[in-house]
Amino acid sequence: MKAKSDIGLVGLAVMGENLVLNMASKGFTVTAYNRTYDKVEKFLNGRAEGKSIRGADSIESLVASLEKPRKIMLMVKAGQPVDDFIEQLIPHLEKGDIIIDGGNTHFPDSNRRTEYLASKGLHYIGTGVSGGEEGALKGPSIMPGGAKEAWPFVKDIFQGISAKVADENGDLTVPCCDWVGDAGAGHFVKMVHNGIEYGDMQLICEAYQLMKTVLGLSADEIHQVFAQWNETELDSYLIEITRDIFAYKDENGEPLVEQILDTAGQKGTGKWTGVVALDLGVPLTLIAESVFARCISAQKEERVEASKVIEGPAIEFAGDKKAFIEDLRQALLAAKMVSYAQGYVLMREAAKEYGWDLNYGGIALMWRGGCIIRSAFLGKIKEAYGNNPELSNLLLDPYFKDTVVSAQPGWRKVVGTAIANGIPVPCLSAALTYFDGYRTARLPANLLQAQRDYFGAHTYERTDKPRGEFFHTNWTGRGGDTSSSTYNV
Protein backbone atom coordinates (compact mmCIF):
# COMPACT_ATOMS: atom_id res chain seq x y z
CA MET A 1 0.00 0.00 0.00
CA LYS A 2 1.22 3.53 -0.79
CA ALA A 3 2.63 5.57 2.07
CA LYS A 4 -0.02 8.23 1.50
CA SER A 5 -3.58 7.78 0.26
CA ASP A 6 -4.81 9.30 -2.99
CA ILE A 7 -8.12 10.34 -1.44
CA GLY A 8 -10.04 10.17 1.82
CA LEU A 9 -13.73 9.41 2.15
CA VAL A 10 -15.96 10.36 5.08
CA GLY A 11 -19.17 8.39 5.69
CA LEU A 12 -19.37 4.61 5.43
CA ALA A 13 -23.04 4.17 4.63
CA VAL A 14 -24.06 2.17 1.55
CA MET A 15 -22.82 4.66 -1.07
CA GLY A 16 -19.64 5.56 0.83
CA GLU A 17 -18.52 1.97 1.38
CA ASN A 18 -19.08 1.02 -2.22
CA LEU A 19 -17.31 4.09 -3.59
CA VAL A 20 -14.27 3.28 -1.45
CA LEU A 21 -14.23 -0.30 -2.77
CA ASN A 22 -14.64 1.00 -6.33
CA MET A 23 -11.70 3.40 -5.92
CA ALA A 24 -9.49 0.65 -4.48
CA SER A 25 -10.43 -1.71 -7.33
CA LYS A 26 -9.21 0.91 -9.82
CA GLY A 27 -5.78 1.13 -8.19
CA PHE A 28 -6.29 4.09 -5.88
CA THR A 29 -5.34 4.05 -2.21
CA VAL A 30 -8.15 5.33 0.02
CA THR A 31 -8.48 6.35 3.66
CA ALA A 32 -11.90 5.61 5.12
CA TYR A 33 -13.30 7.62 8.02
CA ASN A 34 -16.61 7.43 9.85
CA ARG A 35 -17.91 9.37 12.84
CA THR A 36 -18.02 6.07 14.75
CA TYR A 37 -14.72 4.20 14.40
CA ASP A 38 -16.22 0.75 15.03
CA LYS A 39 -17.82 1.03 11.59
CA VAL A 40 -14.39 1.68 10.08
CA GLU A 41 -12.93 -1.35 11.89
CA LYS A 42 -15.79 -3.57 10.75
CA PHE A 43 -15.25 -2.40 7.17
CA LEU A 44 -11.47 -2.94 7.30
CA ASN A 45 -11.92 -6.44 8.70
CA GLY A 46 -14.68 -7.27 6.24
CA ARG A 47 -15.23 -6.04 2.68
CA ALA A 48 -12.08 -3.89 2.67
CA GLU A 49 -9.70 -6.57 3.95
CA GLY A 50 -6.62 -7.02 1.78
CA LYS A 51 -7.41 -3.98 -0.38
CA SER A 52 -5.59 -0.65 -0.70
CA ILE A 53 -7.80 0.87 1.99
CA ARG A 54 -6.69 2.22 5.35
CA GLY A 55 -8.80 3.54 8.19
CA ALA A 56 -8.62 6.75 10.22
CA ASP A 57 -9.85 7.15 13.78
CA SER A 58 -9.88 10.95 13.77
CA ILE A 59 -10.04 13.95 11.45
CA GLU A 60 -6.38 14.60 12.21
CA SER A 61 -5.28 11.10 11.20
CA LEU A 62 -7.49 11.24 8.10
CA VAL A 63 -5.86 14.45 6.90
CA ALA A 64 -2.35 13.26 7.83
CA SER A 65 -2.79 10.11 5.73
CA LEU A 66 -3.39 11.98 2.45
CA GLU A 67 -0.98 13.11 -0.25
CA LYS A 68 -1.10 16.80 -1.17
CA PRO A 69 -3.18 18.48 -2.35
CA ARG A 70 -5.43 16.57 0.01
CA LYS A 71 -8.72 15.33 -1.45
CA ILE A 72 -11.50 14.47 0.99
CA MET A 73 -14.90 13.28 -0.22
CA LEU A 74 -17.89 13.67 2.07
CA MET A 75 -20.63 11.05 1.72
CA VAL A 76 -22.80 12.22 4.60
CA LYS A 77 -26.38 13.42 4.93
CA ALA A 78 -27.00 16.64 2.99
CA GLY A 79 -27.50 19.90 4.85
CA GLN A 80 -26.02 20.80 8.22
CA PRO A 81 -23.91 17.61 8.57
CA VAL A 82 -21.90 18.67 5.49
CA ASP A 83 -21.29 22.13 6.94
CA ASP A 84 -20.32 20.57 10.28
CA PHE A 85 -17.72 18.30 8.66
CA ILE A 86 -16.35 21.16 6.58
CA GLU A 87 -15.80 23.19 9.76
CA GLN A 88 -14.05 20.23 11.39
CA LEU A 89 -11.77 19.80 8.38
CA ILE A 90 -10.79 23.44 7.74
CA PRO A 91 -8.33 23.84 10.68
CA HIS A 92 -6.34 20.81 9.50
CA LEU A 93 -6.15 21.67 5.78
CA GLU A 94 -3.73 23.81 3.78
CA LYS A 95 -4.14 26.13 0.84
CA GLY A 96 -5.15 24.22 -2.31
CA ASP A 97 -6.66 21.23 -0.50
CA ILE A 98 -9.98 19.96 -1.85
CA ILE A 99 -13.26 19.08 -0.15
CA ILE A 100 -15.69 17.07 -2.27
CA ASP A 101 -19.39 16.83 -1.38
CA GLY A 102 -20.84 13.72 -3.03
CA GLY A 103 -24.26 13.76 -1.37
CA ASN A 104 -27.66 14.89 -2.66
CA THR A 105 -26.96 18.50 -1.78
CA HIS A 106 -29.25 21.34 -2.84
CA PHE A 107 -27.30 23.41 -5.37
CA PRO A 108 -27.61 26.78 -3.52
CA ASP A 109 -25.61 25.18 -0.69
CA SER A 110 -22.91 24.25 -3.21
CA ASN A 111 -22.91 27.82 -4.55
CA ARG A 112 -22.38 29.07 -1.00
CA ARG A 113 -19.74 26.50 -0.05
CA THR A 114 -17.68 27.10 -3.19
CA GLU A 115 -17.41 30.77 -2.31
CA TYR A 116 -16.84 30.15 1.40
CA LEU A 117 -14.03 27.64 0.94
CA ALA A 118 -12.40 29.83 -1.70
CA SER A 119 -12.19 32.56 0.96
CA LYS A 120 -10.22 30.06 3.07
CA GLY A 121 -7.85 29.21 0.22
CA LEU A 122 -9.52 25.82 -0.25
CA HIS A 123 -11.37 24.23 -3.16
CA TYR A 124 -14.90 22.83 -3.07
CA ILE A 125 -16.34 20.32 -5.52
CA GLY A 126 -20.05 19.60 -5.34
CA THR A 127 -20.59 16.40 -7.27
CA GLY A 128 -23.73 14.48 -8.06
CA VAL A 129 -23.31 10.71 -7.90
CA SER A 130 -26.01 8.50 -9.41
CA GLY A 131 -26.35 4.75 -9.72
CA GLY A 132 -27.35 3.57 -6.28
CA GLU A 133 -25.49 0.84 -4.43
CA GLU A 134 -24.54 -1.16 -7.52
CA GLY A 135 -23.47 1.93 -9.45
CA ALA A 136 -21.27 3.16 -6.60
CA LEU A 137 -19.47 -0.20 -6.57
CA LYS A 138 -19.23 -0.94 -10.29
CA GLY A 139 -19.32 2.50 -11.90
CA PRO A 140 -21.69 5.42 -11.25
CA SER A 141 -22.49 8.50 -13.25
CA ILE A 142 -20.56 11.38 -11.68
CA MET A 143 -21.44 15.07 -12.19
CA PRO A 144 -18.79 17.36 -10.62
CA GLY A 145 -18.96 21.13 -10.37
CA GLY A 146 -17.47 23.88 -8.20
CA ALA A 147 -13.89 25.17 -8.19
CA LYS A 148 -12.55 24.25 -11.62
CA GLU A 149 -8.94 24.59 -10.43
CA ALA A 150 -9.52 21.40 -8.44
CA TRP A 151 -10.72 19.31 -11.40
CA PRO A 152 -7.24 18.20 -12.66
CA PHE A 153 -6.49 16.73 -9.22
CA VAL A 154 -9.63 14.56 -9.04
CA LYS A 155 -10.23 13.89 -12.75
CA ASP A 156 -8.34 10.59 -12.92
CA ILE A 157 -10.06 9.25 -9.82
CA PHE A 158 -13.57 10.29 -10.84
CA GLN A 159 -13.27 9.19 -14.45
CA GLY A 160 -11.50 6.02 -13.36
CA ILE A 161 -14.34 4.88 -11.09
CA SER A 162 -17.23 6.09 -13.26
CA ALA A 163 -19.31 3.95 -15.60
CA LYS A 164 -18.01 3.63 -19.15
CA VAL A 165 -19.98 3.73 -22.41
CA ALA A 166 -18.99 2.82 -25.94
CA ASP A 167 -16.87 5.07 -28.10
CA GLU A 168 -17.26 5.32 -31.89
CA ASN A 169 -15.52 1.94 -32.24
CA GLY A 170 -17.79 0.23 -29.74
CA ASP A 171 -15.14 0.05 -27.00
CA LEU A 172 -16.32 0.82 -23.44
CA THR A 173 -13.83 3.60 -22.81
CA VAL A 174 -15.87 6.83 -22.53
CA PRO A 175 -16.32 7.80 -18.86
CA CYS A 176 -19.75 8.90 -17.63
CA CYS A 177 -18.09 11.80 -15.87
CA ASP A 178 -16.83 15.19 -16.94
CA TRP A 179 -16.63 18.67 -15.50
CA VAL A 180 -20.11 20.23 -15.43
CA GLY A 181 -19.53 23.85 -14.43
CA ASP A 182 -18.87 26.38 -11.70
CA ALA A 183 -20.23 26.51 -8.16
CA GLY A 184 -23.42 24.44 -7.78
CA ALA A 185 -23.69 23.36 -11.43
CA GLY A 186 -22.84 19.72 -10.67
CA HIS A 187 -25.46 19.40 -7.97
CA PHE A 188 -27.98 21.29 -10.14
CA VAL A 189 -27.54 18.79 -12.96
CA LYS A 190 -27.88 15.93 -10.46
CA MET A 191 -31.08 17.55 -9.15
CA VAL A 192 -32.53 17.67 -12.67
CA HIS A 193 -31.44 14.05 -13.14
CA ASN A 194 -33.41 13.13 -10.01
CA GLY A 195 -36.43 15.11 -11.19
CA ILE A 196 -36.42 13.22 -14.49
CA GLU A 197 -36.06 10.02 -12.46
CA TYR A 198 -39.22 10.94 -10.53
CA GLY A 199 -41.06 11.47 -13.81
CA ASP A 200 -39.80 8.25 -15.42
CA MET A 201 -40.83 6.19 -12.41
CA GLN A 202 -44.32 7.70 -12.27
CA LEU A 203 -44.84 7.19 -16.02
CA ILE A 204 -43.96 3.52 -15.63
CA CYS A 205 -46.35 3.24 -12.67
CA GLU A 206 -49.17 4.74 -14.74
CA ALA A 207 -48.52 2.22 -17.52
CA TYR A 208 -48.62 -0.57 -14.92
CA GLN A 209 -51.93 0.61 -13.48
CA LEU A 210 -53.53 0.75 -16.92
CA MET A 211 -52.30 -2.75 -17.76
CA LYS A 212 -53.50 -4.15 -14.45
CA THR A 213 -56.78 -2.29 -13.95
CA VAL A 214 -58.06 -1.66 -17.48
CA LEU A 215 -56.58 -4.62 -19.37
CA GLY A 216 -56.69 -7.03 -16.41
CA LEU A 217 -53.16 -8.34 -16.99
CA SER A 218 -51.46 -10.51 -14.37
CA ALA A 219 -48.04 -9.72 -12.90
CA ASP A 220 -46.48 -12.38 -15.12
CA GLU A 221 -48.10 -10.85 -18.21
CA ILE A 222 -46.93 -7.37 -17.19
CA HIS A 223 -43.44 -8.82 -16.70
CA GLN A 224 -43.53 -10.04 -20.29
CA VAL A 225 -44.64 -6.62 -21.55
CA PHE A 226 -41.76 -4.83 -19.82
CA ALA A 227 -39.33 -7.48 -21.04
CA GLN A 228 -40.48 -6.79 -24.62
CA TRP A 229 -40.38 -3.03 -24.13
CA ASN A 230 -36.79 -3.25 -22.93
CA GLU A 231 -35.84 -4.51 -26.40
CA THR A 232 -37.20 -1.31 -28.01
CA GLU A 233 -36.41 2.42 -27.81
CA LEU A 234 -37.58 2.20 -24.17
CA ASP A 235 -34.49 0.16 -23.28
CA SER A 236 -33.43 1.62 -19.94
CA TYR A 237 -32.41 0.79 -16.39
CA LEU A 238 -35.86 1.58 -14.95
CA ILE A 239 -37.72 -0.55 -17.52
CA GLU A 240 -35.22 -3.35 -16.88
CA ILE A 241 -35.69 -3.38 -13.10
CA THR A 242 -39.47 -3.05 -13.49
CA ARG A 243 -39.37 -6.18 -15.65
CA ASP A 244 -37.52 -7.99 -12.87
CA ILE A 245 -39.82 -6.69 -10.12
CA PHE A 246 -42.91 -8.19 -11.75
CA ALA A 247 -41.21 -11.59 -11.96
CA TYR A 248 -40.25 -11.64 -8.27
CA LYS A 249 -42.38 -13.85 -6.02
CA ASP A 250 -42.74 -13.73 -2.24
CA GLU A 251 -42.50 -16.71 0.13
CA ASN A 252 -46.01 -17.79 -0.88
CA GLY A 253 -45.25 -17.74 -4.58
CA GLU A 254 -47.27 -14.54 -5.09
CA PRO A 255 -45.98 -11.42 -6.88
CA LEU A 256 -44.18 -9.45 -4.19
CA VAL A 257 -44.99 -6.11 -5.83
CA GLU A 258 -48.69 -6.61 -5.08
CA GLN A 259 -47.94 -7.01 -1.36
CA ILE A 260 -46.19 -3.62 -1.11
CA LEU A 261 -48.19 -0.73 0.39
CA ASP A 262 -49.02 1.92 -2.19
CA THR A 263 -47.47 4.91 -0.38
CA ALA A 264 -44.37 6.40 -2.03
CA GLY A 265 -41.53 8.08 -0.17
CA GLN A 266 -39.32 10.92 -1.36
CA LYS A 267 -36.19 12.72 -0.21
CA GLY A 268 -36.92 16.14 -1.70
CA THR A 269 -34.86 16.35 -4.89
CA GLY A 270 -37.95 16.13 -7.10
CA LYS A 271 -39.57 18.91 -5.10
CA TRP A 272 -36.42 21.05 -5.43
CA THR A 273 -36.57 20.62 -9.21
CA GLY A 274 -40.17 21.80 -9.30
CA VAL A 275 -39.53 24.79 -7.02
CA VAL A 276 -36.55 25.95 -9.10
CA ALA A 277 -38.64 25.59 -12.26
CA LEU A 278 -41.27 27.89 -10.75
CA ASP A 279 -38.57 30.37 -9.73
CA LEU A 280 -37.15 30.41 -13.27
CA GLY A 281 -40.54 30.38 -15.02
CA VAL A 282 -40.01 27.00 -16.73
CA PRO A 283 -43.08 24.77 -17.32
CA LEU A 284 -41.70 21.60 -15.73
CA THR A 285 -45.18 20.10 -15.63
CA LEU A 286 -44.43 16.38 -15.83
CA ILE A 287 -41.87 16.34 -13.02
CA ALA A 288 -44.10 18.53 -10.84
CA GLU A 289 -46.99 16.09 -11.33
CA SER A 290 -44.74 13.16 -10.42
CA VAL A 291 -43.98 14.83 -7.09
CA PHE A 292 -47.67 15.49 -6.44
CA ALA A 293 -48.44 11.87 -7.35
CA ARG A 294 -46.15 10.76 -4.52
CA CYS A 295 -47.87 13.25 -2.21
CA ILE A 296 -51.35 11.89 -2.94
CA SER A 297 -50.08 8.31 -2.59
CA ALA A 298 -49.03 9.19 0.95
CA GLN A 299 -52.65 10.05 1.80
CA LYS A 300 -53.45 6.33 1.98
CA GLU A 301 -56.04 6.34 4.77
CA GLU A 302 -57.88 9.32 3.25
CA ARG A 303 -57.95 7.66 -0.17
CA VAL A 304 -59.35 4.44 1.28
CA GLU A 305 -62.17 6.37 2.97
CA ALA A 306 -62.84 8.43 -0.16
CA SER A 307 -63.04 5.26 -2.26
CA LYS A 308 -65.99 4.13 -0.13
CA VAL A 309 -68.12 7.21 -0.79
CA ILE A 310 -66.98 8.63 -4.15
CA GLU A 311 -67.80 6.59 -7.23
CA GLY A 312 -66.00 6.74 -10.54
CA PRO A 313 -66.92 5.12 -13.85
CA ALA A 314 -67.08 1.34 -14.27
CA ILE A 315 -63.97 -0.11 -15.90
CA GLU A 316 -64.73 -1.10 -19.48
CA PHE A 317 -62.36 -2.14 -22.24
CA ALA A 318 -63.59 -3.77 -25.41
CA GLY A 319 -60.64 -3.08 -27.66
CA ASP A 320 -57.62 -5.06 -28.80
CA LYS A 321 -55.32 -5.53 -25.80
CA LYS A 322 -52.23 -6.07 -27.91
CA ALA A 323 -52.88 -2.88 -29.89
CA PHE A 324 -53.48 -0.93 -26.68
CA ILE A 325 -50.20 -2.17 -25.20
CA GLU A 326 -48.41 -0.81 -28.27
CA ASP A 327 -50.30 2.50 -27.85
CA LEU A 328 -49.17 2.50 -24.24
CA ARG A 329 -45.56 1.94 -25.28
CA GLN A 330 -45.79 4.87 -27.69
CA ALA A 331 -47.37 7.05 -25.00
CA LEU A 332 -44.65 6.16 -22.50
CA LEU A 333 -41.90 6.89 -25.02
CA ALA A 334 -43.37 10.25 -26.04
CA ALA A 335 -44.02 11.35 -22.45
CA LYS A 336 -40.50 10.32 -21.43
CA MET A 337 -39.09 12.49 -24.23
CA VAL A 338 -41.20 15.42 -23.05
CA SER A 339 -39.79 14.95 -19.55
CA TYR A 340 -36.22 15.18 -20.83
CA ALA A 341 -37.14 18.16 -23.00
CA GLN A 342 -38.51 20.00 -19.97
CA GLY A 343 -35.46 19.09 -17.88
CA TYR A 344 -33.09 20.42 -20.54
CA VAL A 345 -35.04 23.68 -20.83
CA LEU A 346 -34.66 24.06 -17.06
CA MET A 347 -30.90 23.55 -17.31
CA ARG A 348 -30.65 26.13 -20.10
CA GLU A 349 -32.53 28.73 -18.04
CA ALA A 350 -30.43 27.97 -14.96
CA ALA A 351 -27.25 28.36 -17.01
CA LYS A 352 -28.40 31.85 -18.05
CA GLU A 353 -29.42 32.74 -14.49
CA TYR A 354 -26.23 31.54 -12.79
CA GLY A 355 -23.69 32.14 -15.55
CA TRP A 356 -22.85 28.47 -16.09
CA ASP A 357 -21.45 27.14 -19.35
CA LEU A 358 -23.16 23.75 -19.50
CA ASN A 359 -22.35 21.13 -22.12
CA TYR A 360 -25.80 19.68 -22.81
CA GLY A 361 -24.61 16.88 -25.06
CA GLY A 362 -21.93 16.02 -22.51
CA ILE A 363 -24.55 15.81 -19.77
CA ALA A 364 -26.50 13.29 -21.83
CA LEU A 365 -23.29 11.32 -22.23
CA MET A 366 -22.77 11.31 -18.46
CA TRP A 367 -26.29 9.90 -18.06
CA ARG A 368 -25.83 7.14 -20.64
CA GLY A 369 -24.27 4.75 -18.14
CA GLY A 370 -24.17 4.09 -14.43
CA CYS A 371 -27.12 6.23 -13.41
CA ILE A 372 -30.77 5.52 -12.63
CA ILE A 373 -32.13 7.29 -15.73
CA ARG A 374 -29.71 5.72 -18.20
CA SER A 375 -31.59 4.80 -21.35
CA ALA A 376 -31.02 4.08 -25.01
CA PHE A 377 -32.13 7.43 -26.41
CA LEU A 378 -29.68 9.50 -24.35
CA GLY A 379 -27.29 8.99 -27.25
CA LYS A 380 -29.87 10.76 -29.42
CA ILE A 381 -29.86 13.72 -27.03
CA LYS A 382 -26.08 13.96 -27.38
CA GLU A 383 -26.50 13.89 -31.16
CA ALA A 384 -29.21 16.57 -31.02
CA TYR A 385 -26.98 19.02 -29.14
CA GLY A 386 -23.98 18.01 -31.23
CA ASN A 387 -25.92 19.01 -34.33
CA ASN A 388 -27.27 22.20 -32.75
CA PRO A 389 -25.61 23.39 -29.50
CA GLU A 390 -28.17 26.25 -29.33
CA LEU A 391 -31.19 23.94 -29.54
CA SER A 392 -33.91 25.60 -27.44
CA ASN A 393 -36.07 22.51 -26.95
CA LEU A 394 -35.45 18.82 -27.68
CA LEU A 395 -38.88 18.61 -29.31
CA LEU A 396 -37.51 20.75 -32.15
CA ASP A 397 -34.77 18.24 -32.98
CA PRO A 398 -35.84 16.15 -36.01
CA TYR A 399 -35.48 12.77 -34.25
CA PHE A 400 -37.46 13.78 -31.16
CA LYS A 401 -40.04 15.76 -33.14
CA ASP A 402 -40.71 12.86 -35.52
CA THR A 403 -40.84 10.28 -32.71
CA VAL A 404 -43.28 12.26 -30.57
CA VAL A 405 -45.48 13.27 -33.50
CA SER A 406 -45.66 9.63 -34.62
CA ALA A 407 -46.63 8.58 -31.10
CA GLN A 408 -49.55 11.02 -30.96
CA PRO A 409 -52.40 8.72 -32.04
CA GLY A 410 -51.60 6.01 -29.49
CA TRP A 411 -50.72 8.55 -26.82
CA ARG A 412 -54.09 10.28 -27.17
CA LYS A 413 -55.93 6.94 -27.10
CA VAL A 414 -54.17 5.96 -23.89
CA VAL A 415 -54.92 9.22 -22.09
CA GLY A 416 -58.53 9.15 -23.36
CA THR A 417 -58.98 5.56 -22.20
CA ALA A 418 -57.56 6.40 -18.79
CA ILE A 419 -59.89 9.38 -18.36
CA ALA A 420 -62.93 7.41 -19.56
CA ASN A 421 -62.18 4.69 -17.01
CA GLY A 422 -61.30 7.00 -14.13
CA ILE A 423 -57.65 5.95 -13.96
CA PRO A 424 -55.29 8.75 -12.82
CA VAL A 425 -52.46 9.35 -15.28
CA PRO A 426 -51.07 12.70 -14.11
CA CYS A 427 -47.74 12.43 -15.94
CA LEU A 428 -48.91 10.90 -19.21
CA SER A 429 -51.60 13.58 -19.46
CA ALA A 430 -49.36 16.44 -18.27
CA ALA A 431 -46.82 15.53 -20.96
CA LEU A 432 -49.50 15.53 -23.65
CA THR A 433 -50.90 18.86 -22.45
CA TYR A 434 -47.40 20.39 -22.51
CA PHE A 435 -46.84 19.03 -26.03
CA ASP A 436 -50.14 20.51 -27.21
CA GLY A 437 -49.40 23.82 -25.52
CA TYR A 438 -45.90 24.04 -26.94
CA ARG A 439 -47.06 23.37 -30.51
CA THR A 440 -49.97 25.86 -30.34
CA ALA A 441 -49.23 29.22 -31.98
CA ARG A 442 -52.05 31.07 -30.18
CA LEU A 443 -53.08 30.21 -26.64
CA PRO A 444 -56.02 31.78 -24.74
CA ALA A 445 -53.66 33.87 -22.60
CA ASN A 446 -54.98 36.95 -24.46
CA LEU A 447 -58.19 36.56 -22.42
CA LEU A 448 -56.19 35.99 -19.26
CA GLN A 449 -54.25 39.19 -19.86
CA ALA A 450 -57.49 41.07 -20.48
CA GLN A 451 -58.78 39.78 -17.15
CA ARG A 452 -55.61 40.93 -15.39
CA ASP A 453 -55.92 44.36 -16.96
CA TYR A 454 -59.64 44.54 -16.08
CA PHE A 455 -59.23 43.93 -12.35
CA GLY A 456 -55.66 45.12 -11.75
CA ALA A 457 -54.69 47.45 -14.60
CA HIS A 458 -51.78 45.10 -15.35
CA THR A 459 -51.68 46.18 -19.05
CA TYR A 460 -51.33 44.03 -22.16
CA GLU A 461 -49.53 43.93 -25.50
CA ARG A 462 -51.36 44.01 -28.84
CA THR A 463 -51.00 41.76 -31.88
CA ASP A 464 -50.99 44.77 -34.16
CA LYS A 465 -48.26 46.66 -32.27
CA PRO A 466 -44.55 45.98 -31.62
CA ARG A 467 -43.57 43.72 -28.69
CA GLY A 468 -42.69 45.71 -25.60
CA GLU A 469 -45.40 48.33 -26.07
CA PHE A 470 -48.06 48.07 -23.34
CA PHE A 471 -51.65 49.23 -23.18
CA HIS A 472 -54.35 49.65 -20.55
CA THR A 473 -58.11 49.84 -21.11
CA ASN A 474 -60.67 51.45 -18.81
CA TRP A 475 -62.98 48.42 -19.14
CA THR A 476 -65.82 49.66 -16.93
CA GLY A 477 -65.70 53.35 -17.67
CA ARG A 478 -65.30 53.94 -13.96
CA GLY A 479 -61.54 53.46 -13.75
CA GLY A 480 -58.80 55.93 -14.51
CA ASP A 481 -55.88 55.92 -16.90
CA THR A 482 -53.32 54.78 -14.31
CA SER A 483 -51.94 51.32 -14.93
CA SER A 484 -49.83 48.96 -12.85
CA SER A 485 -46.11 49.59 -12.93
CA THR A 486 -45.28 45.89 -13.27
CA TYR A 487 -45.82 43.51 -16.13
CA ASN A 488 -44.67 39.94 -15.77
CA VAL A 489 -44.67 37.28 -18.47
From TrEMBL:
An annotated Gene Ontology molecular function: phosphogluconate dehydrogenase (decarboxylating) activity
InterPro entries from the UniProt entry: 6-PGluconate_DH-like_C_sf (IPR008927), 6PGD_dom2 (IPR013328), 6PGDH_C (IPR006114), 6PGDH_Gnd/GntZ (IPR006113), 6PGDH_NADP-bd (IPR006115), 6PGdom_BS (IPR006184), NAD(P)-bd_dom_sf (IPR036291), Pgluconate_DH (IPR006183)
Pfam families assigned: 6PGD, NAD_binding_2
Keywords, comma-separated and alphabetical: Gluconate utilization, NADP, Oxidoreductase, Pentose shunt
Catalytic class of the enzyme: oxidoreductase
Domain 6-phosphogluconate dehydrogenase C-terminal: 186-476
EC number: 1.1.1.44
Name used for this protein in its record: 6-phosphogluconate dehydrogenase, decarboxylating
Biological classification of the source: Bacteria, Pseudomonadati, Pseudomonadota, Gammaproteobacteria, Alteromonadales
